[in-house]
Amino acid sequence: MPKYVSESRVLYLDSDIVVRKSIDELWDLDLTAIPLAAVRDDFYTHNFNSGVLLINNGMWRAENVTQDLI
User: Where does the secretion signal sit in this chain (predicted)?
Assistant: First the structure.
């Protein structure tokens, strides 16, 4: 995502996500020290659900997270 979007933070939502109330609290999460906020997968404990991702683009680029995920 950071390769294609220049904004400092991005909220990615899968196409099947329905937002029914304000997402301000999610958007306002402190991402100062982390490149990504996501929900852990209950079954696969080293994975996360990629349906909702809040991305700190600056840190993602600086930490080269894309390479770590591949």
Answer: none
